[in-house]
Write a structure and sequence with these properties.
This protein is α+β, with helices and mostly antiparallel strands. The chain is built from 28 helices and 24 strands. The strands form five sheets. Strands 12-24-23-22-13-20-21 form a seven-stranded mixed β-sheet, with helices on both faces. A six-stranded antiparallel β-sheet has the order 14-19-18-17-16-15, with helices on both faces.
């Protein structure tokens, strides 16, 4: 059956340590070949062999580690179930946060704003207890569950700090004489315990809301899917004005404009008429369309985009691996520092200050910000790209795009429309009379041969010969980069460029009429592509084909060059036609008469010179170069092989999206660096400060309540910074 990739929603993760725990648990399962767990999306992307391990067994392993994973149904069904669970959890979190804030405010008010009165300590105890054990129950449940399974996480730190503050206060309330007998005051710290819970709950609430915003792109795409469609491939459906299409198909009747902006990022509706392709998730605007169904359900273009975006958002950037290693030991190190802090204060004779400093260290340390720094930016960046019709397969590709120094572009279908047309043709005068059966027969021969080729030039020739007979062809052969050959009625014919003619015949055959040969030079000088029909004896026809530049090609090349990227153009076409396109677009590095294997070799040579290379193409003949390049970029209207090979797909085939991709990559990496800088510098400065490093200097000791507010703010800052990528 082979390796299968699925994204499973994971419940119960609270910080980077949880991510490491879940990831290591899944990696240890037999049959699992790859795992990426994301705190930002609360999901696990798992590559596994269904013949060796089942989703149920993966779920059991995650549950044994103290978490839960949704595995039933398809990815979309699991996402739907996870979204319902998230909404329920978010609603419960809001209620707990509100209650904790109200009670914590009362505790603070009574502690700081009122003079002592009989029973004041017990009133504070009564108000603090529901905050700690009801509103803060999630910290104890998750934290001690992690300890039970041999690990520690953010919830463990919070549970320990709140427990110490609360229990120390209860002890001082019930046994004050332990301290008063030594001339010390029995302080109560119920306000610290309650405010820690309140501040961290506020932070969690803001963090969850912000994290949910980063995944808006994938939810929007999923929302485009029409549920309940019963159409099957081969059937015909009527799409009325204003309806959203539920299938991919071919228009057989009618004419209308269709809004495809959700797939391509293009705001202008596309005209659809007989022969046009339409896609699920798009909206028919003003006319009725009769559509022959080609793909439904998980096979539609929209479903493929959703899978690609989901996989990409679940992937990890290379820099994340270092962060994960740090996060895996972060919590144990912080617990060790807190214990060391207590011991140092005890040795200095300050038990109370030692306990407060220990609590502050536990509270202020924030592995959450480390765990969220990279994935939130990746999810937001990939989602932003998807909304513009730029589909990025993984986080590494998004990170690589900003480093591209040279971009190699195929000509036909990439820089040009890829829809060439026959603009002129010359047939041997001996067969050009319409009444001559021989002439018609050779047109049929050309049509029959080209009809069996998928090359854009062949399609254009067939269009110009519409109405000709499709004769039987034997021993059909595609001569890579040069043309085609086939046997018709016992005679071997060739259709292709001048290179193929030379391979078969040497120079132009002597029997070729000068009128045929004389046409080739002027047409090539005009930038046309020349195709010939011939056998080993004679050239029977010469056709001139022209492929117009895309409207966006010139500006796209200029925009990329302005970003410091060197543009190269490769084509199998002739030198003159290649130079003609190069002059129009402003490309100075051009190579013509290039075979598919030569394209890959050209990319390799650029890489050998020290350049990071991106390859942009749309055809099967570009796939080797796309695979060789540091970044392969396929046009969405190109071949499936090219799209499968590339790391990035431009759905609309609009080259102006390339500069958007580079900008998005640079912005995403910048925000990742900002997030990581903040996460690391915050912890490096906050933890020593919380331990009391400034106390011997100026008597400054950080309050645990302030520490809790700082910790909550650090995570919120990281996620909010990542949300800038949505704009």
């Amino acid at each position: 059956m082979g390796v299968k990739r699925r994204n499973f929603p994971v419940q119960g993760m609270g910080c980077a340590a949880c991510v490491a725990r879940v990831e290591n648990t899944l990696k240890a399962c037999k049959g699992v070949s790859g795992v990426n767990v994301s705190l930002a999306s609360n999901s696990a992307q798992v590559d596994y062999d269904p013949a060796v391990v089942t989703p149920g067994e993966l779920k059991k392993a995650v549950q044994d580690a103290g978490y839960d994973m949704l595995v039933d149904g398809s990815d979309d069904e699991a996402d739907s179930e996870a979204e319902i669970a998230r909404q329920d959890a978010f609603s419960a979190l809001k209620k707990d946060t509100l209650l904790a804030c109200v009670l914590a405010a009362l505790v603070m008010l009574l502690s700081m704003g009122f003079e002592d009165f009989p029973g004041k300590g017990f009133v504070l105890w009564a108000l603090a207890t529901p905050v700690v054990f009801w509103c803060g129950r999630r910290f104890f449940k998750a934290g001690f569950s992690a300890l039970r399974h041999g690990s520690a996480n953010m919830d463990t730190l919070v549970a320990l700090s709140v427990s110490i503050s609360y229990l120390f206060s209860v002890f001082n309330l019930l046994f004050p004489q332990v301290w008063t007998s030594q001339g010390l005051e029995a302080h109560l710290y119920f306000e610290s315990a309650t405010m820690i819970v309140a501040f961290i709950l506020i932070g969690r609430l803001l963090e969850e809301r912000a994290k949910h915003s980063t995944t808006a792109a994938i939810r929007k795409l999923i929302g485009l899917q029409e549920k309940g469609s019963t159409a099957r491939p081969g059937e015909t459906v009527l799409v009325k004005p204003g309806e959203r299409l539920a299938v991919d198909g071919l228009v057989t009747d009618g004419s209308s404009y269709v809004d495809e902006s959700t797939l391509t990022g293009e705001p202008v509706p596309a005209l659809k008429q007989a022969g046009s392709h339409v896609y699920a998730g798009t909206i028919n605007q003003n006319g009725a369309l009769t559509v022959k169904v080609e793909k439904v359900g998980e096979n539609t273009l929209l479903s493929g985009i959703i899978r690609m975006v989901r996989d990409a958002q679940g992937s990890k950037a290379p820099i994340q691996k270092t962060v994960d290693r740090i996060a895996a030991v972060f919590v144990p190190v912080i617990i060790g520092i807190s214990v060391l802090t207590l011991l140092i204060w005890i040795l200095c004779g300050e038990v109370t200050l030692g306990l407060l400093s220990m609590v502050t260290v536990l509270v202020i340390a924030c592995p959450c910000s480390l765990g969220l720094a990279t994935p939130t930016a990746i999810i937001a960046g990939i989602g932003n790209g998807a909304s513009k019709g730029i589909l990025i397969k993984d986080a590494e590709s998004l990170q690589v795009a900003r480093k591209v120094q040279a971009m190699v572009m195929d000509k036909t279908g990439t820089l040009t429309e890829g829809k060439p047309s026959v603009v002129e043709s010359v047939w041997d005068p001996s067969i050009t009379t319409e009444d001559d059966p021989t002439a018609l027969n050779l047109r049929d021969v050309l049509y029959a041969l080209e009809h069996r080729s998928e090359h854009p030039l062949a399609l254009a020739v067939c269009e110009s010969l519409r109405g000709c007979e499709d004769l039987p062809v034997e021993d059909f052969e595609a001569v890579l980069g040069k043309g085609i050959a086939g046997t018709v009625h016992g005679r071997r014919y060739y259709v292709g460029n001048m290179d193929l003619l030379r391979d078969v015949c040497g120079d132009l055959p002597e029997a070729t009429n000068p009128m045929v040969g004389d046409s080739i030079g002027p047409w090539m000088d005009a930038g046309h592509t020349v195709t010939l029909l011939f056998d080993k004896v004679k050239v029977y026809a010469v056709l001139a084909l022209s492929d117009e530049l895309k409207d966006t090609s010139v500006q796209a090349v200029k925009a990329l060059q302005a970003q410091g990227i060197e543009i190269h153009m490769l084509t199998g076409d002739n030198e003159v036609a290649a130079r003609h396109i190069a002059e129009e677009t402003g490309i100075s590095h051009v190579k013509a008469h290039v075979l598919p294997q030569d394209k890959a070799e050209y990319v390799k040579q650029l890489q050998a010179s020290g350049k990071r290379v991106a390859m942009v193409g749309d055809g099967i003949n570009d796939s080797a170069a796309l695979a060789q390049a540091d970044l392969g970029i396929a046009m969405g209207q190109g071949s499936d092989i090219a799209i499968d090979t590339a790391q990035v797909t431009i759905v609309s085939s609009d080259l102006s999206k390339l500069s958007d991709l580079v900008r998005l990559s640079k912005r995403t990496v910048t925000i990742i660096r900002e997030n990581l800088f903040w996460a690391f510098i915050y912890n490096l400065l906050a933890v020593p400060l919380a331990a009391g490093i400034l106390y011997p200097v100026n008597g400054f000791l950080l309050n645990p309540m302030v520490a809790a507010a700082c910790m909550a703010l650090s995570s919120v800052c990281v996620v909010t910074n990542s949300l800038r990528l949505r704009k």
